[in-house]
Specification:
Blueprint lengths: L8 H5 L7 H15 L10 H19 L1 H8 L19 H45 L4 H26 L1
Helix pairs in contact: 2-3, 3-4
């Protein structure tokens, strides 16, 4: 289940982030008077009005308390949020979990790397040597320029892909 995005308390109350306490209180009172469930008794939208008043109350609780408001303005929401996993409460929890899994995976591959490491290094050296000899053969020809352009393009695409993965 995907959690709902947290509503902005400023947008809920319809005030600017620079609003004073008096403006916040006035907006709160006006909205509660408009959506109070007592005004909508017997109306099919009574449940919707009750939910709206609960949302207005949470927004007012956040903005009326100077500490909560300062914390929200700094980017740490004080709204209650559902916890899906033990890693969801810590910022960057998923990233820590994936790093931990990477370290465990590398430790598990260490014996294979020690056993076949020399073979892999020899194969990489041979591949690099063949590539450099191939470029030496076609030096000064249009094929060399195309090959070099492809190599540079591939390198740039790999860097961009790596950067995008890091940003997610």
């Amino acid at each position: 289940m995907i959690p709902k995005p947290e509503p902005d308390p400023y947008a809920v109350l319809g005030v600017a982030p620079t609003a004073t306490e008096a403006e916040i209180r006035a907006a709160y009172r006006a909205l509660v008077a408009k959506y109070h469930p007592d005004r909508h008794q017997g109306n099919p939208l009574e449940d919707l009005a009750a939910a709206k008043v609960a949302e207005i109350n949470r927004a007012y609780e956040t903005l009326s308390d100077p500490e909560r408001r300062a914390a929200y303005d700094r980017g740490r929401s004080s709204w209650p949020r559902p916890v899906a996993s033990p890693f969801a409460t810590a910022p960057g929890g998923a990233r820590k979990r994936s790093r931990w899994m990477l370290v465990v995976g590398l430790l598990m591959l260490l014996p294979l790397l020690l056993r076949f490491g020399a073979f892999v290094v020899r194969m990489l050296v041979r591949l690099f040597r063949l590539a450099s000899e191939g470029f030496a053969l076609v030096r000064g020809t249009p094929a060399a320029m195309v090959g070099m352009a492809l190599a540079v393009t591939l390198f740039i695409l790999l860097l961009v892909h790596r950067r995008r993965r890091r940003l997610r």
